[in-house]
Amino acid sequence: AQQERTFIALKPDAVQRNLVGEVIRRFEAKGFKLVGLKLVKPSVETAEEHYAEHKGKGFYKGLVDFITSGPVVAMVWQGKGVVASARKLIGATNPLTSEPGTIRGDLAVDVGRNVIHGSDSTDSAQREISLWFKEGEIADWTPVSNAWVYE
Ligand code: DAT
Ligand code: MG
């Protein structure tokens, strides 16, 4: 269960607003393990595949335009229950209704500028990790803090 992985992306607004460190800090402080990290300006093809489930919706084009508008920090985080836990750390999709204490609740206002993406299931996580990362770009390691994070 500690091997569960999720895909997290800091969107172009997060990079522009200098929130990269703040968001990474929250995942580190929680106790999750960073196993993949890169700054990339996504191609339209990658963005469309990433958001394929939303194809046909009114906000799809704007979403693809936005996510491809600048560099994104793509990450893979690993840990017990990390997929669901990351979604809780991130908060609701619309930042106006995200709870305070969540990333979107604390750091964002508009749904089209909501700072961060996180996989919504372990299946989505697998699909998204393989879309954004090659095998050699993910590095597992053993944190010295393991015994103090896990019982
Ligand atoms: P989430 O990012 O919380 O998984 P989602 O998968 O439903 O949310 O949608 C993907 C992104 O699309 C979301 O982060 C912001 C944008 N989006 C979703 N619903 C929207 C809407 N009603 N209007 C504008 N943008 C929207
Ligand atoms: Mg989603």
Automatic annotation (TrEMBL):
One of its GO terms (molecular function) is nucleoside diphosphate kinase activity. Keywords: Kinase, Transferase. One of its GO terms (biological process) is UTP biosynthetic process. It holds the Pfam family NDK. The active site is at H117 (pros-phosphohistidine intermediate). Its cofactor is Mg(2+). It comes from the Eukaryota. Its EC number is 2.7.4.6. Residues 3-140 form the Nucleoside diphosphate kinase-like domain. ATP binds at K11, F59, R87, T93, R104, N114. HAMAP family: NDP_kinase (MF_00451). Belongs to the NDK family. NCBIfam families: PRK00668.1 (NF001908). PANTHER family: NUCLEOSIDE DIPHOSPHATE KINASE (PTHR11349). This is nucleoside-diphosphate kinase. It comes from Acrasis kona.
